[in-house]
Amino acid sequence: MSRWVVGLDIGGTNVVVGLVPAGGGRPAALRTRSTPTLGPRDVVVGELAKLVAEVVESGLDAVGDPEGEVLGMGIGCPGPIDLEAGIVLDAFNLGWRDFALRDALAEAVGLRTILDNDANCATWGEYWQGAGRGARSLVGVTLGTGIGGGVILEGRLVHGASASAGEIGHMSIDFHGRRCKCGNYGCLEAYASGPNIAARAREGLEAGAESALTRLVGGDLDRLTAATVYEAILEGDAYAGEVMLETAKILGAGVANIVNVLNPQIVVIVGGVTRAGHYLFNPLRAEVRRRAFKSAEQACKIVPGELPQTAGVIGAAGIWLAAHPQA
Ligand SMILES: [Zn+2]
Predict the structure, then answer these.
(1) Which of the residues 30, 40, 50, 128 has the least number of beta carbons within 10 Å of its own beta carbon?
(2) How far is the C-alpha of 49 from the C-alpha of 321, rounded, in Å?
């Protein structure tokens, strides 16, 4: 009989659910839908539970083992979390506050369930099944609407005193810098998240920079996104190249801080920004080399994630397994 764990990755836009083999490997089934943020909480829980049931059924069906055993479920969710109580404290992108998601969903699906931060889950996914396989100390940086992170040292996920360790996006990289959504100034996220890459590009265009970007958004700079910037780079646009170069240097400064503080073997960068490929990674690595301690920099590989779309799902299941070694 096959053995499985459900992984549930709740994002600001989409929910991804997968049925992950307990021994590792690709999910047997994967479903995505828009995140059900609206409505009473029992409705939200009901919709998530329905999605989980569908994934379990279709996954076991796909592998031809309808009697397969589902051991448990891991949930990754944004925002500060009360790990012990399984409560989402404040996921402001979802409008969820003090939501006892873990126990409500565990009851609805009838599975032992664990809840952790979404970036921790993505980091664990890459550590267990992706770019970090074989490493003992790894830091994940998730670049998207925001910037998150996860820290694994000597094979253990670091949660810290109140489970908010790894908030890499909110390290200050410019003392007098841009205002961040979190209330601080000069956070890494205020420069290098997707929306802030777009915002920096827009500011330059408004100040008169010449670029194919203006044409790509039909003259409406409000439509500019980080994806438009990559598109323009691929067209050979010099200004978009400058924006990406600066983004890479900013991220490099942040990664150099991580490398100096934690001395990881691998820093894995996860998210859409990695589509910029060597336009991102070459100057990012160069910046880390320029800033970090030589011995720490030389011991560290900086790589893109290997599990686009599924790192969070695989990692959520993996975190459940790591917490239940007897399962
Ligand atoms: Zn911040």
Answers:
(1) 40
(2) 20
Task: Give the per-residue pLDDT at 10.
Answer: 94
- Ligand 1 mean position, distance from CA 180 (Å): 5
- What are the 10-residue block averages of pLDDT along the chain, 327 residues in total? 96 92 96 87 94 97 96 94 94 86 97 97 98 97 93 97 94 95 94 96 96 96 95 95 97 98 98 89 98 98 96 98 94
Q: 191 C-alpha vs ligand 1 centroid, how far in Å?
A: 10
Classify burial at 303, counting beta carbons within 10 Å of its beta carbon; exposed 0-12, middle 13-18, buried 19 or more.
middle
Asked if residues 229 and 243 have their Cβ atoms less than 8 Å apart, the reply is yes
CA of 146 to the centre of ligand 1 (A): 9
Residues by chain with Cβ below 5 Å of ion ligand 1: 170, 180, 182, 184, 187
How is the beta sheet containing 81-82 ordered, strand by strand?
A: 81-82, 87-91, 96-99
How many Å lie between the centroid of ligand 1 and the Cα of residue 312? 22
Report how far ligand 1's centroid is from the alpha carbon of 322 (Å). Answer: 30
Both tokens assigned to 117: 């931060």
Task: Indicate the SS3 state at residue 303.
Answer: strand
Ligand 1 geometric centre to CA of 140 (Å) = 17
The Cα 292–Cα 304 span in angstroms is: 19
Query: 254 CA distance to ligand 1 centroid (A)?
Result: 13
Taken in order 162, 168, 170, 172, the sign of the CA dihedral is positive
Rounded to the nearest whole angstrom, what is the distance from the C-alpha of residue 91 to the centroid of ligand 1? Answer: 14
Give yes or no for a contact between 198 and 213, defined as CB atoms under 8 angstroms apart.
Answer: no
Compute, in angstroms, the gap from residue 184 CA to the centroid of ligand 1: 5
R_g of the chain computed on alpha carbons = 20
Distance between CA 221 and CA 259 in Å, rounded?
A: 36
